User: Fold this.
Amino acid sequence: MQCPGCHHQETRVLDSRVSSDGLTVRRRRECTKCAFRFSTVEEIEILGLAVIKRDGRREPYSRDKLQAGLKRALYKRPYTQEDISALVHTIERDIQLKRQQELPSDAIGDIVMRQLKKFDKVAYIRFASVYRQFSDVETFKEEVDALMPRMTKNSAKGGPPARGGHSAFGGNPPIVNNRKPIIKNQ
Assistant:
Protein backbone atom coordinates (compact mmCIF):
# COMPACT_ATOMS: atom_id res chain seq x y z
CA MET A 1 0.00 0.00 0.00
CA GLN A 2 1.28 3.45 -0.90
CA CYS A 3 2.24 5.85 1.91
CA PRO A 4 0.07 8.99 1.84
CA GLY A 5 3.02 10.99 3.26
CA CYS A 6 5.93 10.21 0.90
CA HIS A 7 4.21 7.93 -1.68
CA HIS A 8 6.65 5.08 -0.98
CA GLN A 9 5.16 1.72 -2.03
CA GLU A 10 6.07 -0.32 1.05
CA THR A 11 4.22 -0.14 4.35
CA ARG A 12 3.87 -2.57 7.19
CA VAL A 13 0.83 -3.44 9.29
CA LEU A 14 1.23 -2.59 12.98
CA ASP A 15 -2.22 -3.61 14.20
CA SER A 16 -5.42 -5.14 12.78
CA ARG A 17 -8.84 -5.02 14.41
CA VAL A 18 -12.07 -6.59 13.22
CA SER A 19 -15.21 -4.53 13.81
CA SER A 20 -17.87 -5.79 16.20
CA ASP A 21 -20.11 -6.80 13.28
CA GLY A 22 -17.24 -8.70 11.64
CA LEU A 23 -17.70 -6.93 8.31
CA THR A 24 -14.75 -4.52 8.37
CA VAL A 25 -11.09 -4.67 9.35
CA ARG A 26 -9.24 -1.57 10.52
CA ARG A 27 -5.47 -1.70 10.04
CA ARG A 28 -2.84 0.63 11.51
CA ARG A 29 0.07 0.95 9.05
CA GLU A 30 3.54 2.50 9.02
CA CYS A 31 5.65 3.53 6.02
CA THR A 32 8.99 1.67 5.90
CA LYS A 33 10.71 4.76 4.45
CA CYS A 34 9.44 7.82 6.38
CA ALA A 35 7.71 6.10 9.37
CA PHE A 36 4.44 7.96 8.65
CA ARG A 37 1.54 6.18 10.38
CA PHE A 38 -1.98 5.93 8.99
CA SER A 39 -5.09 3.76 9.19
CA THR A 40 -6.94 1.86 6.49
CA VAL A 41 -10.35 0.19 6.56
CA GLU A 42 -11.20 -2.94 4.57
CA GLU A 43 -14.84 -3.73 3.83
CA ILE A 44 -16.74 -6.40 1.98
CA GLU A 45 -17.53 -5.22 -1.53
CA ILE A 46 -20.49 -6.47 -3.52
CA LEU A 47 -19.00 -7.40 -6.88
CA GLY A 48 -20.83 -8.15 -10.09
CA LEU A 49 -24.30 -7.13 -8.93
CA ALA A 50 -26.36 -5.36 -11.56
CA VAL A 51 -29.30 -3.23 -10.47
CA ILE A 52 -32.31 -3.31 -12.81
CA LYS A 53 -33.86 0.16 -12.77
CA ARG A 54 -37.62 0.78 -13.11
CA ASP A 55 -37.20 1.72 -16.79
CA GLY A 56 -35.34 -1.55 -17.52
CA ARG A 57 -31.82 -0.11 -17.62
CA ARG A 58 -29.09 -2.03 -15.83
CA GLU A 59 -26.31 -0.37 -13.88
CA PRO A 60 -23.67 -1.64 -11.45
CA TYR A 61 -24.56 -1.65 -7.75
CA SER A 62 -23.20 1.45 -5.99
CA ARG A 63 -22.60 1.55 -2.24
CA ASP A 64 -22.17 5.33 -2.56
CA LYS A 65 -25.73 5.72 -3.91
CA LEU A 66 -27.12 3.62 -1.06
CA GLN A 67 -25.18 5.61 1.53
CA ALA A 68 -26.24 8.95 0.00
CA GLY A 69 -29.91 7.93 0.11
CA LEU A 70 -29.62 6.86 3.73
CA LYS A 71 -27.84 10.09 4.67
CA ARG A 72 -30.66 12.11 3.09
CA ALA A 73 -33.26 10.11 5.02
CA LEU A 74 -31.27 10.39 8.27
CA TYR A 75 -30.44 14.09 7.85
CA LYS A 76 -30.46 15.85 11.26
CA ARG A 77 -31.26 12.58 13.04
CA PRO A 78 -29.14 11.59 16.08
CA TYR A 79 -26.80 9.10 14.40
CA THR A 80 -23.07 8.99 13.76
CA GLN A 81 -21.31 8.02 10.55
CA GLU A 82 -20.47 4.74 12.30
CA ASP A 83 -24.20 4.07 12.86
CA ILE A 84 -24.96 4.78 9.20
CA SER A 85 -22.09 2.51 8.08
CA ALA A 86 -23.46 -0.28 10.27
CA LEU A 87 -26.88 0.19 8.64
CA VAL A 88 -25.28 0.06 5.17
CA HIS A 89 -23.54 -3.21 6.13
CA THR A 90 -26.82 -4.70 7.34
CA ILE A 91 -28.58 -3.74 4.10
CA GLU A 92 -25.70 -5.09 1.97
CA ARG A 93 -25.76 -8.35 3.94
CA ASP A 94 -29.47 -8.71 3.11
CA ILE A 95 -28.72 -7.97 -0.56
CA GLN A 96 -25.97 -10.61 -0.62
CA LEU A 97 -28.31 -13.17 0.97
CA LYS A 98 -30.48 -12.89 -2.17
CA ARG A 99 -27.59 -14.58 -4.05
CA GLN A 100 -28.52 -13.02 -7.38
CA GLN A 101 -26.38 -11.45 -10.09
CA GLU A 102 -29.15 -8.99 -11.00
CA LEU A 103 -31.60 -7.43 -8.60
CA PRO A 104 -34.44 -5.00 -9.34
CA SER A 105 -34.07 -1.61 -7.70
CA ASP A 106 -37.48 -2.22 -6.10
CA ALA A 107 -36.09 -5.27 -4.27
CA ILE A 108 -33.19 -3.19 -2.93
CA GLY A 109 -35.63 -0.43 -1.97
CA ASP A 110 -37.77 -2.94 -0.06
CA ILE A 111 -34.70 -4.13 1.86
CA VAL A 112 -33.80 -0.53 2.71
CA MET A 113 -37.38 0.18 3.83
CA ARG A 114 -37.46 -2.91 6.07
CA GLN A 115 -34.17 -1.97 7.75
CA LEU A 116 -35.03 1.74 8.09
CA LYS A 117 -38.38 0.87 9.68
CA LYS A 118 -36.46 -0.93 12.45
CA PHE A 119 -33.70 1.70 12.63
CA ASP A 120 -35.55 5.04 12.62
CA LYS A 121 -39.24 5.72 11.93
CA VAL A 122 -38.73 9.32 10.79
CA ALA A 123 -36.04 8.30 8.30
CA TYR A 124 -38.33 5.48 7.15
CA ILE A 125 -41.10 7.98 6.33
CA ARG A 126 -38.64 10.32 4.59
CA PHE A 127 -37.25 7.48 2.47
CA ALA A 128 -40.73 6.08 1.76
CA SER A 129 -41.97 9.45 0.50
CA VAL A 130 -39.34 9.40 -2.25
CA TYR A 131 -39.14 5.64 -2.89
CA ARG A 132 -42.90 5.11 -3.08
CA GLN A 133 -43.35 8.42 -4.90
CA PHE A 134 -46.19 9.73 -2.74
CA SER A 135 -48.36 11.84 -5.00
CA ASP A 136 -50.45 13.52 -2.31
CA VAL A 137 -50.72 14.19 1.40
CA GLU A 138 -53.31 11.44 1.87
CA THR A 139 -50.90 8.72 0.70
CA PHE A 140 -48.25 10.14 3.01
CA LYS A 141 -50.74 10.18 5.92
CA GLU A 142 -51.67 6.54 5.28
CA GLU A 143 -48.02 5.52 5.61
CA VAL A 144 -47.67 7.46 8.87
CA ASP A 145 -50.93 5.95 10.18
CA ALA A 146 -49.59 2.47 9.42
CA LEU A 147 -46.81 3.14 11.96
CA MET A 148 -49.17 4.46 14.64
CA PRO A 149 -50.69 1.14 15.89
CA ARG A 150 -47.28 0.31 17.37
CA MET A 151 -47.75 3.09 19.90
CA THR A 152 -49.93 2.58 22.97
CA LYS A 153 -53.10 4.59 23.51
CA ASN A 154 -51.32 6.38 26.36
CA SER A 155 -48.47 7.64 24.13
CA ALA A 156 -50.88 8.70 21.38
CA LYS A 157 -52.67 10.94 23.93
CA GLY A 158 -49.45 12.70 24.84
CA GLY A 159 -48.53 10.45 27.75
CA PRO A 160 -45.20 8.69 28.07
CA PRO A 161 -44.10 6.94 24.87
CA ALA A 162 -44.35 3.20 24.44
CA ARG A 163 -41.42 0.73 24.34
CA GLY A 164 -39.16 2.09 27.02
CA GLY A 165 -39.06 5.74 26.07
CA HIS A 166 -39.04 5.62 22.28
CA SER A 167 -42.10 6.53 20.29
CA ALA A 168 -42.47 6.54 16.53
CA PHE A 169 -42.12 10.31 16.27
CA GLY A 170 -40.38 11.57 19.35
CA GLY A 171 -38.84 10.58 22.61
CA ASN A 172 -35.36 9.18 22.79
CA PRO A 173 -33.82 7.45 19.76
CA PRO A 174 -33.21 3.71 20.08
CA ILE A 175 -29.81 2.64 21.37
CA VAL A 176 -27.74 1.74 18.33
CA ASN A 177 -24.88 -0.78 18.25
CA ASN A 178 -25.52 -1.81 21.88
CA ARG A 179 -24.11 1.45 23.23
CA LYS A 180 -25.44 2.37 26.65
CA PRO A 181 -26.34 5.99 27.44
CA ILE A 182 -24.07 7.76 29.92
CA ILE A 183 -25.94 8.61 33.11
CA LYS A 184 -24.29 11.11 35.43
CA ASN A 185 -24.95 11.04 39.16
CA GLN A 186 -26.71 14.16 40.34
About this structure: Confidence is low (pLDDT under 50) at residues 152-181. The first strand starts at residue 11 and ends at 18.
